[in-house]
């Protein structure tokens, strides 16, 4: 009888403490992105300024640096400057850079391209379909996707040159 | 720890005040009246507090602790209303500077103590959580024994039980007490009492279910708190915000790219300033226009091809059209879209024409008219007479950045500047440099020397923008169930009263006693009816204390000035 | 006559009927001793008082209906309308509870409080205001009417609690209790002073204007409706008049503070005037009238009022409020000050019920809690609406 009472009390208390603990954990732990580390990167299809079609799935086997940016975002420009510098070097090592514009129209992106002369293609996402699916809320946001299509990192905010190089280094396919 | 066996044969748990069956007082506490709370049952056994689990359990089982938690939540909640919470400070203000700037030192302290986000702080949430635990344990610890006691109560009660009731009296030995009791039984039946009989004794009971009211409402509260807790679990709650320009179609955030919304038209309607009903009010407030309606006429669309990649090739299907207003959200598939904000007259299009600076010109340029979409500008405008205007650079929200270069803050044309390049028919756009001019609202500057041509703005088009909140709250059904049960319990416990009347024949004497959890006034009235119809006397209220009147009379004649301080 | 005028006239009529009820109830308790010769109570004043109260409620409801017709929406959407309705609800609550206990003392305490609330309400602008979009919902009526009714019933608990305290507290000795009770009575007198001063200066069309620098550092103008005792931040009087003694910092609305100071001064004059007249604490002066009150009955009465009012208040102030908030503001709960204070009121009365049922707080302790509870309701009505800005401050 006494033993039974202790067991019941322990169970009830445990259930309540676990539920409350989990609630606190969810509330106070850093929020996970819609697409985040360990997820399979959702496949998307985009076109660049010249109308060249790209599908993420076609890049299987390569490391992919997906970068969401906008013309008005100065951190994005800094980052893309570094990417321009290392683009060809890492392309040879099997790393692709996919720069997806956030919610701007072709004309505006075209003038931006002329002004800053990036050497990689700029893809459009005029209706924000791709950035929405990736849960992009601030710029720049990058997703590091390995050769198997798995996200290995979600990087939000401005990055230094060394950080960009380190990220590209991580993406080199192992085989 | 041993159980206590009463004289009547019933075995009671340790800590019982009044025998669950016959009501005999088991603990001699020298009280003149029986403590009838929870029927005198053993509600928590302090003696079991040997293990940690029991100690925690007993802590939360105390009503005293429960009341302290309520009081602490109450006091803490007050603190949070001294200054506005962070979510209510004006948009764009930073909490780190706002509070100090607006409320001085106290504001700074408020911010530093974290009171500006107090209601989601760990300690406030912990208080609410303890309230939940207290509710569960207090209720469990009381409802079970109470239920047992009310179920096992006997009709014939111990003399000590009866005489220690608040309402009690007994008669002298009388003739045919059975008859009086029988008559009383009839009266009580008419008053809808349930009658239990044993050896010529009566227990009349009414409204016992009111006793469960508190526990029912606690269950409701617990369900409600569980619902509130689930809010923090993934997938349960979505709170997103979208801005939609007139004519624009956007993906509705939080819907996994499944739903889209087009803003067909946004309307703001004002109250008629001539309206006679509100004339005085308009006069008093200085005639500021009062908004009558905000409304977004929207079209809801759905993605139809769910296979294949995201992005290019997405096809839509119109689902419905709806006028979203304040107090009238658009609800679909568990989501709701609420009208929350708007921005009127955002620039959307500029229309320009070209002029020669010296009007001596024989050329007619009036055919040259072009419109620039400020969100989606064409880059090149060619005209039949050979003129060509190109957009050299475009800054929707112009400013000069840290590197002293022209730049844009964002994509919204709140302060648009366009650098145009004008090519005359004689020039080759691929090799020549045309005249450059920077054009904006009230701005028109030549950038490379004196210009022969001037681009003049002749028309401006504007758009309204609507702001909608996207909400999905899967906890609502749980909260509704909790709220309903809570209200039922509250009403059950507040608007019905548990009343019991004992009439016992003790060797020719009639012993009368009554108990109720509230509303003694009502119970006394029931006794009055019995007294009127039978020889049974009105029981005395053993707590009634009329001596107070004499005390009050004593006030007279005293030195009044001494009582003032 | 327009519907607005008709409604105003009915409110005025109601006010005098409440006054009549007060007088009848007063006669019923003072006259009892003399008219009790045959051992039977021949005193009909109590009944007359109750009838007057019922008629007053009818007149009040006619005010309510005509104003509804005039404005096209339920007249509970600004301070005047809500506060008036709260007074009416208190009267309705009295009409419900009186038949249970037939306690004329309760009438003597309740009716003046109802009058005071309605008179206080009429100090606010009385014009009909158009409804902003957030208020255009049938939940406005459901939510606000239920809340007012709940608060009205809880206010009966206050009246009974006050009655209990004046009945049992020993005024012959100076004590904390006496001081607090006198403070409550002083607060009531200050409210009366505020109303009288407001009516007086209003009738004289008194206005004093100032140029001043507001909290944002901008020059602005401020109008005083009572003679300025304090001036605004760097205030300069426009036109003739004496200069105030003190200046206030910019964040304080000095004209409102000025009114508060006048009310407190008025309250002090009334209070000490009465003390001088009675030569004892005001409570002590009232006490002999209440000899016939059975404290136990009044204690139970105050508890019953709260037990009846608490579910109604919870339904209106929390549950209906949440439903409407979910529809109008997208979330059922947003920690808006008014919401928080409704929760505080709920928690307070929940604590009261637990203290009474589980910890045996009867009598005096319970009566004090009833008084504090009413203070919370008034704080939520006046202070939160007028001082702590939030989503609810439309008035």
Describe the fold and architecture.
The complex is a heterotrimer of chains A (about 180), B (about 575) and C (about 400). Chain A is of the alpha/beta class. Chain A has 2 domains: about 1-30; about 35-170, Glutaredoxin (3-Layer(aba) Sandwich). Chain A has helices at about 1-30, 75-90, 105-115, 130-135, 160-170; strands at about 45-50, 55, 65-70, 95-100, 120-125, 140-145, 150-155. In chain B, helix 1 (about 50-60) crosses helix 4 (about 120-150), helix 4 runs antiparallel to helix 7 (about 215-230) and helix 6 crosses helix 10 (about 520-535). In chain B, the strands form 6 sheets. Chain B has a 6-stranded antiparallel beta sheet with strand order 4-5-23-24-3-25, with helices on one face. In chain B, strands 6, 12, 13, 14 and 22 form a 5-stranded antiparallel beta sheet that branches. Chain B has a 5-stranded antiparallel beta sheet with strand order 15-16-19-20-21, with no helix packed on it. The radius of gyration of chain B is 40 Å and the shape is elongated. Among the domains of chain B are: about 40-150; about 245-475, no CATH class. Chain B is α+β, with helices and mostly antiparallel strands. Chain C has a 3-stranded antiparallel beta sheet with strand order 2-1-4, covered by helices on one side. The longest helix of chain C has about 35 residues, at about 295-330. Chain C folds into 2 domains: about 5-170 and about 290-385, no CATH class; about 170-280, no CATH class. In chain C, about 65% of the residues lie in helices and about 5% in strands. The mean pLDDT of chain C is about 85. With about 400 residues, chain C is mainly alpha-helical. The interface between B and C is large, with 79 and 80 residues. Strand 1 of chain A pairs parallel with strand 10 (about 310) of chain B.
